[in-house]
Amino acid sequence: MADFKYSDGTKRYHALDYYFKKKYGAKVFKVSLNAGFTCPNIDGSKGVGGCTYCSASGSGDFAGDPERSLDEQFEAIVAMMHKKWKNASLYMPYFQAHTNTYAPVAVLKKCFEPFLEKQNVVGLDIATRSDALNGEVLEYLEDLNKRCDLIVELGLQSVFDETGRRINRCMSYAEFLEGYSELKSRGIKVCVHLINGLPGENKEMMLASAAKTAQLKPDFVKLHLLHVLKNTHLAKEYASGEFETLSLEEYIDIIIKQLELFPPETVIARLTGDGARAELIAPLWSLKKFEVLNEIDRKMKELGTFQGRLYSNDR
Q1: Where do the H-state alpha helices sit in 2-52?
Q2: For a surface tag, which of 127, 175, 219, 239 has the fewest beta carbons within 10 Å of its beta carbon?
Q3: 228-229 and 280-282 beta bridge pairing
Q4: Residues 278, 165: Cα–Cα separation, whole Å
Q5: How far apart, in whole angstroms, are the C-alpha atoms of residue 149 and residue 218?
Q6: Which has more confidence, 201 or 80?
Q7: How many domains is the chain partitioned into structurally?
Q8: Could you tell me the CATH number of the domain that includes residue 40?
Q9: How many CA atoms lie within 13 Å of 1's alpha carbon, on the beta-carbon side?
Q10: For residue 294, is it within any domain?
Q11: Hey, is 127 helix, strand or coil?
């Protein structure tokens, strides 16, 4: 492990914090924003209701308050960060809630462009779906990529279309691959999201999703834990006993095996998720986020394993 070149020695995987510190010489803080966008599987374009696990605010549960302007959201969150981290200095606005390219380019420019002028902002992180990347949007993202450090996050969640149908994803794996290819062909860095513990999936399926994603050699990947939140369709399924959530031990085992499959240079942007305490139904062990991360570190060290141990270009 001493020669593992993508770690500062405290992690056995290529952590996001380490990546940013190597690139910028300082910590980079993601500032989560809510620009008020919707999704194709919410507004009726491809479906209604959104993904079954999404709360009313969608993936932006920890983004800014959509009732405030983007600038007000940014300044408020930065101020909170400075209370916790006195040396906070570099920022990356993260357009998190829902689908952040699902609008005309003129609208996107009004959201994104002002942040390029802000002091100590190093780039933009834009979360979206592959089916919300039309030609004009791709051209604009290509231009943005030339002017800032751009990351586009694509929610895949699972490579299995039957899972996508069950969670009302309203997007196929083939559509994901098309959008991913369009971004990569333009030199845009992509972060792929996977969720562990989705209804109907077993360990082998979760590892298969990781293995297929690993072969794409994504720049970043986020490995999420499925959270059951109040007032979601998923909560109704859980209450009726249609599926069970993962135990801590099961989750750690799956995460470590997934990390072994990814190429060492892929940056691991997340290894679990944040479920709002007031909204979380299950699994409650996930509330102790740092204990989960510490246990992943401990178990990887115990096993003598590391990210990329089983990665092969020949798969």
Answers
A1: 16-24
A2: 239
A3: antiparallel
A4: 28
A5: 16
A6: 201
A7: 1
A8: 3.20.20.70
A9: 17
A10: yes
A11: strand
